[in-house]
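Invent a record, attention on tokens:
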Amino acid sequence: MSANIVIGDGPHGQPTEIDIKELLATRLLVQGNSGSGKSHLLRRLLEESASLVQQIVIDPEGDFVSLAEEFGHVVIDGAAYGEAEIVKLGARIRQHRASVVLALDELEIDSQMKCAAQFLNALFDAPRDQWYPALVVVDEAQMFAPAAAGEVSEEARRISLGAMTNLMCRGRKRGLAGVIATQRLAKLAKNVAAEASNFLMGRTFLDIDMARAADLLGMERRQAEEIRDLGRGQFLGLGPAISRRPVKTQIGSVKTGAKSVTPGLMPLPEASTEDMRELLHDNLHVEPEKPDFVRPVRRRMEMEELDQSIASGPAAEALPPRPERPEPEPEENRAAMLEILNAMARDEDSLFQSSTTLFQDFTIRCRMKGISVRSLDATMFRRGFAAAVAGIEDPEDERWFDLVNLAKHVPDDALAPFYVIARAAMDNEPCPDDDRLAKIYGTSSPRRIQRLLDYLEKDGLIVVRTDFAGKRSVGVPDLGVTTAAVEA
């Protein structure tokens, strides 16, 4: 079966093709100002490849829901579901290989970013036996991977940018091929854009965007003017899935349409100035009637109904039966989790990674070994990982009972250094130096450790003592132990 699709015509009438197999391995970046035909290009790509590969569309404007009628995509209204439901849907989509459109147009931008992030993370966290190939199309990608902080909350920006980075940087090995579209390259995070090897560049006018587009296409600066001269629906394509040299393409027609329309001209009303003034001021003091137009509301499908819709898709029939795995005993689960935690803690590179990334890595490792993580949340993981970093292999061991109870009063981000100091005191060993504590704290700044020690001391958790010989010891008064004195 051929995996090439035609997206349009070149300058001499020859067809411009995209190799879908190559695209799955190399990803695609589409750029074009508003009105350049960017969404039309995505629609053409989705329509032509609908029978070849699973498609997952992140749709912030609800423009791609029309794919459902013609091609059988399942529409998921992001506003109708909670966080846990979105995560479950993402997992089932990978399991059943369903083509879906996640419509986010009913949500505010902050909620759009959080919903998309949870959805993408669920796709990313699928078990290895469900890493089927899929195109993940994200329209208006600059919203979900902004280059700089904007009006949205820092939390929404952080988790959304993390999910987009995972998609573009690490998604290929999990079968997820990112296709991202943006109005402005300057507003898109560079580490997300840089992972694409294929490019379709449409009309743009700002010099900074033209310069970046020309650089990605391997064009000289003086050739960048060509990007400004492109017409509506014209794109310059380059990449292993498209062409080895930049090729101009006029995107072909599509079968489905968007709900948004390009504004056009229409005759102005012929009323005189006096008539218009009277129309504007008539019954001005009376509460105006509500317009007859009612915004259509998508019906919220129950999880069971939506699950059935996803599972009954065309791809579901071809799926082999999933092998049954015996459920491990709770004690076996716990022992295996501790083994994974301790293995991660021994990798010093993990100390500089965010807790979100580490938790994702942990859940993936657990699922790879068939371990259920339903009873574990991110807070429990952070505290367990901090104990593992300090060499406390089993926090429920009787030896650590008092220490673990005391640690409940320590903030999560300070827990690993506190555990390390307390364990050294319990063993009557020297307190690790500031450089070592800084590494455990996930920083390269010893000054932050000084501030951390001051904070723990003011909170009554530790006592720092420096004698006249310049030797420092750190005591943990609640446990009645002190580290050996050593030069600070």
Remarks:
- Residues 4-261+300-309 form a domain with the Rossmann fold fold (CATH 3.40.50.300).
- The radius of gyration is 28 Å.
- The mean pLDDT is 83.
- The first strand starts at residue 4 and ends at 9.
